[in-house]
Design brief:
2 domains; two-stranded antiparallel sheet; 6-stranded mixed β-barrel
Length: about 400
């Protein structure tokens, strides 16, 4: 044990003698590990944000869009020209087992006004169950009822952005807003949700009964989307298949013809949304791996130079009793120390840079402890692999030849 301790002290002393060279040698590892931690932090932060925004859709949600992409061309994009009807939504609620909530949806932009304030926003026509489906609580007031939907009443629930723009410092509940000059009574204000995964403000919205939107504002007879919620996550796929079969039957789509609608469940949306983040993560990890390899080559190069420069020193150590094993350990310790310190510094720099970028660009960052461990272990392994050959070469020197070396 005393011999090993002495060998480690000699190795550390050798590194301190050439501080600049030691620092330059560590830079490759520092940049490589820093790139790993930085890329992982940013991509994991982006992934967590996307997952949170997907979760904001609600739990166990299936979205049925009007229109469909086809192999031979585009019939109509998602949410395009109306192929869905209120009867379709009612049939899904009535005939598909496992469905708990259905909300027909129409959507359009409109100018709204209150007093001398006006604002252009997104108007959603939904059922009274929409807020339950989206798990979107009402912060003030209440939502509209199914009776309001059946009667196409002029009643609205507004987002926090609308409340701030049209009623600064006031309670909007009970007040009137004009949507395309039609007066609507505000019955509730939604709790803030923040930005969507597409970068839009989810709180910049007015939600009214879909019947009111279709009959009193936009003159629509078809739906843009049908929002469906299942009882459990396990039912998402079978319910989606049932919905597809039901709508194909209702729309008289013969076998071999493409659907005139698009059904996507929440899991599919989440996978599609995080696919880009995964690809970017792999790309950045590959670049970081190359940096680590380059850093390892730099360590091997410097250690080989060090063996040549210290040949006489190695001969003296062997002459006074050091064995080949001691020399091997000494040079391995030097290589591992270089890479380990570089790894620790790289982890710190990577986390710091990712936090800085996240702060400047308003991006979330998340650094899993697992990846910190992976980065540190990788840097240590690079040190062992790159330092083994120079260490082995030093341990094989003949003491007599080493003492004669000039």
């Amino acid at each position: 044990m005393r011999r090993i301790t002495a060998t480690i002290k000699i190795a550390l002393r050798a590194l301190r003698r050439n501080k600049l060279r030691t620092l330059l040698t560590m830079l490759g590892i520092i940049f490589g590990v820093g790139a790993v931690i930085g890329s992982v932090s940013i991509t994991n932060g982006a992934k967590s944000q996307v997952e949170a925004q997907i979760a904001s859709l609600g739990q166990n949600v299936i979205l049925v869009f009007s229109g469909s992409f086809t192999r031979g061309g585009v019939h109509s994009g998602w949410g395009g020209a109306g192929t869905l009807t209120v009867d379709d939504a009612e049939a899904i609620q009535r005939e598909v087992a496992g469905v708990t909530v259905v909300s027909p949806e129409v959507r359009n932009g409109a100018l709204i006004a209150a007093g001398n304030q006006n604002w252009t926003t997104q108007v959603l026509g939904e059922s009274g169950d929409y807020f339950t489906l989206r798990q979107w609580p009402i912060r003030e007031g209440a939502s509209f009822s199914e009776q309001d939907v059946r009667s196409a009443n002029k009643i609205a629930v507004i987002g926090q952005t609308i409340a701030n723009q049209l009623f600064p410092g006031e309670n909007p509940v009970g007040q009137i807003i004009r949507i395309r000059s039609a007066p609507f009574i505000i019955c509730g204000v939604l709790a803030p949700k923040g930005m969507s995964m597409m970068g839009s403000d989810q709180d910049d919205v007015v939600v009214i009964p879909y019947t009111s939107a279709m009959k009193r504002l936009f003159g629509m007879t078809t739906l843009r989307t049908i929002n469906v919620q299942t009882a459990t996550a396990e039912l998402l796929t079978p319910v989606q298949e049932q919905i597809t079969g039901l709508l194909r039957q209702r729309h008289r789509i013969v076998p071999g013809r493409d659907d005139d609608f698009t059904a996507r469940n929440q899991q599919e949306i989440a996978e599609a949304a995080t696919a880009t983040a995964r690809v970017m993560s792999f790309l950045l990890a590959g670049i970081a791996a190359v940096s680590l390899v380059v850093g390892g080559i730099g360590i091997m190069n410097i250690m080989l130079v060090s063996v040549t420069e210290r040949t006489r020193e190695i001969g003296i150590r062997m002459a006074v009793g050091a064995r080949g094993h001691d020399i091997l350990v000494q040079f391995l310790v030097e290589a591992v120390t270089l890479s380990a310190i570089g790894g620790i510094v790289g982890i710190g720099i990577g986390m710091g840079v990712s936090k800085l970028i996240g702060s400047l660009m308003q991006w979330p960052t998340l650094t899993p402890v697992f990846w910190i461990g992976v980065a540190f272990v990788s840097s240590a392994l690079v040190g062992i692999l790159s330092g083994f050959y120079p260490a082995w070469k030093a341990s094989q020197l003949d003491p007599i030849d080493a003492l004669r070396y000039e």
